[in-house]
Amino acid sequence: MKWGFFTPTHILTLMLAALMVAGLYYGLKNKSQKVQTMVLFPLSLSGIAAIIFNLLRWGSPLEYLPLHLCSINAMLLPFAVLTRNKTLGNLLLLWCLGALVALVANFEMTEAVLFSESFNFYFFPHVFEFGIPLLLFKLGLVKKDPECIGSTMTITMFLYTLVHLCNLGINRYCAVVGNGIRVNYMFSVDPTNPLVALFHQLIPYEYWYMYMVLPIVGLYLMLVYAPELTARSRRAIQRHAV
Questions:
Q1: Which SS3 state, helix, strand or coil, does residue 84 take?
Q2: What pLDDT score does 62 carry?
Q3: pLDDT of residue 242 exceeding 80
Q4: Are 90 and 221 contacting, i.e. CB atoms less than 8 angstroms apart?
Q5: What percent of the chain has pLDDT over 70?
Q6: Is the pLDDT of residue 155 over 80?
Q7: Rg value, the chain, Cα
Q8: pLDDT score of 66 more than 90
Q9: At 85, which helix (H) or strand (E)?
Q10: Burial (CB count <10 Å: 0-12, 13-18, 19+), residue 122
């Protein structure tokens, strides 16, 4: 049975992902921080396992370097679980959105057979890359802080620029050696799926067209931090009223 895109099978797997994250929350919410970490840390390694799998399985390492946002999320996630660093945790609170998009807009994996090797190394790591950052906050392991919005945006845009330069360098090298490879990490070069193609229609220039994501990111962060921003505004009003 193939995964498909918004087929009954695809929708059921999205429901499974939600149930997995909810189950982890309710199973861990009354446990100690030590137990929570002991459970979340091994799960956080699933993305690194997927990176290794892709590098070794497909025989084309240049096309499977950990330079997509979800792969970088995967490499940082174990450190976020172990250190509970506020800056890193708040950063992954944004990046986990990419993992959710990868599960919903699974355009490159629609032909994957359900619970096959390739499906498992895509689906489950993305579920944990989405769910664990949320659980770090819901379980109180990391503090949600709107002051981290600046660092989150700066790190994300710096990383995107760096990855684009890597794309250009790898593609230039591949053109010289003539191996036929052309990479497009973080979709900075070509709009290879229908979602980012919409951005390219508005700004038809490589690298720059992905800046159309910024309004979406800004809205997402405003919604995520709305309770903290509202509480801060209320405290400021109260101080001025005194």
A1: coil
A2: 97
A3: no
A4: no
A5: 99
A6: yes
A7: 19
A8: yes
A9: none
A10: buried
- The C-alpha atoms of residue 222 and residue 209 are separated, in whole angstroms, by 22
Q: Which of 186, 42, 68 is nearest to 128 (CA)?
A: 42
For tokens 């994957």, the residue is 112
Among 104, 213, 118, which Cα is nearest to 159's? 213
For residues 55 and 51, give the distance between their C-alpha atoms in angstroms, rounded to a whole number.
6
The token duo for 37 is 């970490």
Q: Tell me the pLDDT band of 241, cut-offs 50, 70 and 90.
A: low
Only one residue has tokens 């355009």, namely: 107
Read off the tokens for 184: 């497009």
pLDDT at 240 over 90: no
DSSP, residue by residue, 175-214: HHHT------GGG-S---SHHHHHHHHHS-STTGGGGGHH
pLDDT at 130 over 70: yes
d(CA 56, CA 116): 17
- pTM value? 0.93
Rounded Cα gap, residues 229 and 27, in angstroms = 30
CA dist., res. 210 & res. 199, Å (int): 7
Largest CA distance in the chain: 72
| CA–CA distance, 75 with 56 (Å, rounded to integer) | 17
Lowest mean pLDDT, pick from 122-126, 181-185, 195-199, 231-235: 231-235
Given pLDDT bands bounded at 50, 70 and 90, which one contains residue 194?
A: confident
How far does Cα 224 stand from its chain's mean position? 15
Please name which of 138, 148, 36, 156 lies closest in space to residue 90, comparing C-alpha atoms. 148
Q: Report yes or no: 21 and 36 within 8 Å, Cβ to Cβ.
A: no
